[in-house]
Amino acid sequence: MHWPTSLSSLLPMVIAVVAGAAVPFQAGSNAALGRALGHPLWATLSSLTVSVLVVVPLMLLMRVPAPALGAAAQGPTWWWLGGVAGVAYITAALVLTPKLGAASFIVSVIAGQMLASLLIDHYGLMGLAPKPIGLGRFAGVALILLGMIVVQISSSAAPPASAPASVSEGPR
Fold first, then answer.
1. Which residues contact 148 (CB under 8 A, 6 or more apart)?
2. How far is it between the farthest Cα atoms of the chain?
3. Burial of 41 (0-12, 13-18, 19+ CB in 10 A)
4. Which parts of the chain sit beneath pLDDT 50?
């Protein structure tokens, strides 16, 4: 088993955890925005527009060179799946988070991510080097699936908590 041995190898994992911690806030804010705008797809479009408005100034500030569109256009079609997946995820998050709750939605997303990641790694899809599933990786994902079931059962068994309007709906 390989464990990170230095701060430099732990840092990417910490950054990934922090980025992951932002996801439930994204799902919740998009869900509220979808309700306010009257349709989930308006919130999806709004979220993606805000993303563009944030990333373009960052790119200018960092002096990111122009993209190699010719090379990208000649690549495989699956290179462009990220945009489709982004729309699917954002829309699912803003529709399902209010129904499932943040924890149930996110644990289900993580379970789906892990199942897909195992297959991508095992078969070396999307340009990645193959990494066979193996017993340890299978057991880890099985525990995540079990965790998803436990969270879901616990969520449906618990009485819904009533939040103050200012917390659940935001300012009016």
1. 107, 108, 110, 111
2. 55
3. middle
4. 166-172
CB 166 within 8 A of CB 31: no
Q: What's the predicted TM-score (pTM) here?
A: 0.75
- Dist. CA 109–CA 115, nearest whole Å: 10
Give the list of residues 6+ apart from residue 30 with CB closer than 8 angstroms, or none.
Answer: 43, 44, 47, 90, 93, 94, 97
pLDDT of residue 122: 96
Q: Which amino acid is present at 2?
A: H
> Residue 25, Cα to own-chain centre: how many angstroms?
11
Residues 27 and 73: their CA atoms lie apart, in Å, by 31
DSSP string, 101-161: -HHHHHHHHHHHHHHHHHHHHHHTGGGPPP---HHHHHHHHHHHHHHHHHHHHHHHHSPPP
Residue 131 has a pLDDT of 95
Predicted local confidence at residue 167, as pLDDT: 47
- Closest of 17, 41, 18 to residue 30, by C-alpha: 41
> Phi and psi (nearest 5°) for 100?
-95, -25
